[in-house]
Amino acid sequence: MKPMRRERGGESLAPKSFFTDFFSDVDRFFENDLFRMPAQIGRQLMRNMPATNIRENERDFTIELAAPGMAKDDFNIDIAEGMLTISSQKEENTTQEEENYTRREYNYSSFSRSFRLPDAVNADDIKARYEEGVLKITVPKKEDTQTDNRKRINIE
Fold first, then answer.
1. Edge-first strand listing for the sheet containing 127-131
2. Residues in the chain with pLDDT < 70?
3. Contact by Cβ (8 Å): 121, 61
4. Smallest Cα–Cα separation from 50: which of 30, 64, 32?
5. CA angle (66, 142, 73) in 5-degree steps
6. Per DSSP, what are the bridge partners of residue 102?
7. 69-105, pLDDT tens digit by residue?
8. Residue 134: which H helix or E strand, with range?
9. 35-41, long-range: CB within 8 Å, 24+ apart, which pairs?
10. Does residue 137 contact residue 62 with C-beta atoms inside 8 Å?
């Protein structure tokens, strides 16, 4: 005899099998925030990271960093041991005082991006410019690396 299938409020009251319950419990277990936390943290960090484009031509490299709403004084650009690091720390505090309450808001944002510079660049002539929400850094190549310096090595 076939089990009777009844419905209550759009929900089936038909008997469920052990496997249906088991797999739905396993699905709920893996949907738990504990397992998604590393991915969520990574997405949050990437949300704070400005988008970057890097272009190369025969004379230089150009790094463009999208950072709307910032000022040129908000950025730090450093070179150390062949690494170009672009960073920013911005802190905003606002206080609104009314008759019955005081509201304080704190906003803190920061990021840091580092790029390994090739040996073929002239680090002394790097230039940076910020306009219309884009930080543009020009990293010129050394003069002697702009030509083709291939050399054939003979095998003895």
1. 52-56, 60-66, 134-140, 127-131
2. 1-48, 144-149
3. yes
4. 64
5. 30
6. 97
7. 888 888 999 999 999 999 988 777 888 888 887 787 8
8. strand 134-140
9. none
10. yes
Cα 133 from Cα 69, distance rounded (Å): 6
Residue in 115, 135, 129, 128 with CA at minimum distance from that of residue 70: 135
Q: Which amino acid is at 39?
A: A
> What is the pTM (predicted TM-score) of this model?
0.57
What does residue 21 show for φ and ψ, rounded to 5 degrees?
-65, -45
Asked if 48 contacts 109 with a C-beta cutoff of 8 angstroms, the reply is yes
4-12 long-range Cβ contacts below 8 angstroms, 24+ apart: none
pLDDT at position 45 is 47
Which of 70, 60, 54, 47 lies closest to 134, judged by CA?
A: 70
Which of 85, 83, 105 has its CA nearest to residue 95?
105
Q: Residue type for 29, please?
A: F
Q: Detail the DSSP E strand segments found in 32-133.
A: 52-56, 60-66, 75-80, 83-97, 102-116, 127-131
The tokens for 123 are 């680090």
Going along the chain from its start, the domains and CATH numbers come out as 16-48 (no CATH), 51-145 (2.60.40.790)
